[in-house]
Amino acid sequence: MSQSLVSSLSSLEVLAPSILLVQDATGEYRRAHTQEVLEAAQQVLAAQIRGTDVLTSPDAVRTFLRLRMGALPHEVFAVLHLDAKQQVIEFVEMFRGTLTQTSVYPREVLKDALRLNSCAVILVHNHPSGGGQPSSADQSLTQQLKTALNLVDVRVLDHLVVTAGAITSMAELGLV
After folding, report:
1. Lower Cβ count inside 10 Å, N or C end of the chain?
2. Are 104 and 159 in contact (CB under 8 A)?
3. What is the mean pLDDT of the chain?
4. In this structure, how many other beta carbons lie within 10 angstroms of the beta carbon of residue 165?
């Protein structure tokens, strides 16, 4: 029995080495759908960044964000919550919008930071249109959130703008 399974899997490798298989609820193996592969990759990357120091692992964080948000057809605003050692507590997608904008409510960001006992945060949103430069609205929002979070001793370390091809750091541009 195990020999037939091995030979079956070997023949699959010969026919299509790039096929990924998943086991369904009945125990049967089938070809994985693209969305399943992407979701699994996001879960692996999320597990890799949880508990990592964002200052010593910026590539892992950027890879995760590009995969998670870079190709979305709509804007998403998210927050990376960090502990006192600047390790990732949790990544939270907070607000979803349209192709060109999303509404962000500082009160909700503040509530989430308190709920997770965050010491610092990195704000993140994507630009589906592909333009990686922060808008004046992005800059204004960053300052509003920075002011609100500062009242409860939560520091805003950065605000990242994610596109499919790049990530722009507002801190590196001197805007945080």
Report:
1. N
2. no
3. 83
4. 9
List the domain boundaries for the chain.
Answer: 53-169
- Band (pLDDT 50/70/90 cuts) for residue 11 is very low
Structure tokens at 143: 């300052």
80 neighbors 116 (Cβ within 8 angstroms): no
Q: How open is the CA angle 30-36-38, to the nearest 5 degrees? A: 140
Domain 53-169, CATH class in plain words: alpha beta
Cβ atoms of 49 and 87 closer than 8 Å: no
Tell me which residue has tokens 């605000």.
159
Whole-structure pTM value: 0.72
Angle at which helices 58-69 and 34-49 pack, to 10 degrees? 150
CB-based contact 126:77 (threshold 8 Å): no
- 167 pLDDT more than 60: yes
Residue type, 48: Q
